[in-house]
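Data card: per-record layout.
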Amino acid sequence: MAEVAVRDVFKAYGSVEVIHGVNVDIADGEFVVLVGPSGCGKSTLLRMIAGLEEITGGEIGIGGRVVNELRPKDRDIAMVFQNYALYPHMTVAKNMGFSLKLRRESKQVIDEKVKRAASILSLENLLDRLPKQLSGGQRQRVAMGRAIVRDPQVFLFDEPLSNLDAKLRVQMRTEIKELHQRLKTTTIYVTHDQIEAMTMADKIVVLRDGVVEQIGSPLELYDRPANLFVAGFIGSPSMNILEGKLRADDGRAIFVTDEGDEIPSPPVPESSNGRPATFGIRPEHLVLADTGFPAKVQVVEPTGSETQVYMKLGGHDLVGVFRERIRVEPGETLHLSADPALVHLFDRQTGARMQ
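The structure for this 355-residue chain is written out next.
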């Protein structure tokens, strides 16, 4: 079994604490993505799991044993870095088999494992090349092959696609997901790209300033964000956010923006009448209506499959994503509506979800 348990883990550099009591349970064979903005502590947490950073407090378990005091090579993990970390003077085959050579494995075992990994990653024709003769995507495959030959309990990926161009990133994230589906090895993957997190993960851990904001499946985080930070971070384009207050009367709930625009809201108790709140709606959940709240068009971006329209509602920025090919010009006014069942309400002071 290769479950990973992170229990009340802290990390401090001197008097500066950067990880604040993180708890995460990762099941055997699960693909978990640690995501968050730069500086949130996700790479630090990954490096503590790998043994590359000391743990200030708490406990990390891999495969049922506490590894706090174990060296990286004794934790039965394999890590793929952002910069590939290939030896420039070694061929692809020698790069992939180097860790096995250090273990004093026989040449036959090394050759067999390298060939198996090369077959999985479509590197058979590149085994005699040097890293400088490879593209960025091929180098990343070699780095992954070097991890595979070790047959570890856990794969750790630290922003492995950030050096690749956009098209290659899409291709490589598909290949990494397919690799996980084939090998079924527990995988922990760090990225700041929430699209990578949404498309690859079985479970996402959202971090901010060294604290876990929410843990759940991609669609759980998308459909029911626990707070305003998760709501704004998960999803592209990000959720539209409006500030105002709630009005509850005659069994109806209305959200009134600071500028006085009224939008139907999910049901709220009568006691919420006049309560300051933050209103959230996904761009694709805005629909065109004959009557509704008015928004002034700023920029129109047709992408072929959809049209993104950037607008102003009073002092708030709005973006709508419409599947239909609408014809609208900057300066025009669109009337919009939103299904109250798809609206998110957050406490204006704490940012916590209200529904």
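Known properties of this structure: The longest strand covers residues 286-302. The mean pLDDT is 92.

See the next section for split statistics.
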